[in-house]
Structure formats: C-alpha cells, structure tokens
Amino acid sequence: LSTEFDGVPRDFPSCLMTFRRLLDEFFNRIRRLFDGQISMAFRRLFNVRNSMAF
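Predicted structure:
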C-alpha cells in the first residue's frame, strides 16, 4: 500500500481540505462581487426609472 501512494503526500486529506477552503473562499468572493454588481445595476435602473417618473 505504501508503494502505491509514494508520490502522494502523507497529509493529502489536509491538502485537499485546504484546496477546498481556498476554492470556497474564491467562489464566495466571486458571488459577493457578482451580487454587488447586480445590486448596483438594479439601483441604477431604479434611479433611472425614478428620474423618468418625475
């Protein structure tokens, strides 16, 4: 069994967890950025509609 996993580091699960945590943080940042862009666009659209109404 040890000869099979020669190339794999011993703390492979922890590396995987760290990678997954980085991936989660990356996706959370993208989602936050995307939400901010969408809310800004909606606010701009709302402001334009308000200025057209008056």
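Summary: The two ends are 76 Å apart (CA to CA).
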